[in-house]
Specification:
128 residues; mainly alpha
Length: 128
């Protein structure tokens, strides 16, 4: 005899596995610190590449003016200013990435916890 409650639960779980569950299971294989640390590291690398590209475009845009002013400017102060802009940009980007990936991890773990509770409930339905 078919149990409607069991069928509904299995359908809900199959839908979860096919859509959101695949990504959450991949996230759930990491420890929290490993998942967040890896993604923050990737974000810092991306921010560095983006900063270099934007800085290169800025220099290339006014290259003639930059070359004329390079002999007049204090190069050490210029490098310090660029380095501080890089650190601020990367730092803010890293903090934002940390918050985003921490929230993603906690949501995925909460979702996986519900999924495992449904698995236990389904297993208990089969036992009785």
């Amino acid at each position: 005899m078919l149990n409607e409650e069991r069928i509904i639960l299995m359908t809900k779980m199959a839908s979860y596995e096919a859509n959101e569950g695949r990504r959450n299971v991949a996230i759930g294989r990491y420890f929290r610190s490993d998942y967040i640390g890896w993604h923050v590291l990737k974000s810092i690398i991306s921010a560095t590449i983006a900063f270099v590209v934007v800085f290169g475009m800025y220099i290339y845009y006014d290259f003639e003016v930059f070359m004329l002013d390079i002999y007049k400017m204090d190069v050490l102060a210029f490098v310090k200013r660029i380095l501080s802009m890089y650190l601020w940009t990367t730092g803010i980007y890293a903090v934002i990435a940390f918050v985003v990936y921490a929230v993603r991890y906690s949501r995925a773990m909460r979702s996986l916890k519900l999924y495992h509770m449904n698995l236990r409930r389904l297993m208990n339905m089969y036992k009785s």
